[in-house]
Design goal:
Elements: E1 3-6, H1 12-25, H2 36-44, E2 49-55, E3 58-70, E4 74-84, H3 93-107, E5 112-114, H4 122-130
Parallel strand pairs: 4-5
Antiparallel strand pairs: 1-2, 2-3, 3-4
Length: about 150
């Protein structure tokens, strides 16, 4: 049985481990530079929140998100990572996490929930579209490194 709940401080190492697993899946194995201490400090500051999926006392999936603002729409939620560990994929865990994230977004009064998906991740794109999400293909990511 899968238990879905809000993350606790003690979950942060497992959450970070799943983010590292995601970076390997996304062909960027050295991209995660945020340390456990970064996660701990920023979690304490409530910069981000996370929902975890647990089976047999092991965290097998996460939906990591934070509050955001759309100048066009108002309050929105940004889903930074939705990850299910490889051996637990295709069992409905991702669906439960996404639904929990959408419910949290509604409870917070958000008008919109947004996230990104890699253009080559066809199974994720199909999953999101099946859930009713709109995949925008005309926008490009922009980032500026500050250090």
């Amino acid at each position: 049985m899968i238990n879905i709940r809000d993350a606790q401080y003690e979950d942060l190492q497992s959450i970070r481990n799943l983010v590292v697993e995601l970076s390997i899946f996304e062909k960027a194995p050295n991209a995660v530079t945020a340390t456990l201490e970064d996660y701990q400090g920023l979690f304490r500051e409530q910069l981000f929140q996370c929902i975890v999926a647990i089976e047999n006392e092991e965290i097998i999936g996460i939906a990591l998100y934070y509050d955001a603002f759309s100048t066009w729409k108002g309050r929105m939620m940004y889903l930074d990572d939705l990850v299910v560990t490889e051996k637990h994929r295709n069992k409905g865990v991702g669906k439960q996490l996404l639904e929990a994230f959408i419910q949290k977004s509604k409870e917070k009064g958000a008008i919109l929930a947004k996230w990104q998906v890699l253009d080559w991740n066809e199974s994720a794109i199909k999953f999101y579209e099946k859930k009713g999400a709109e995949v925008e293909k005309g926008w490009w990511n922009v980032k500026f490194w500050l250090n």
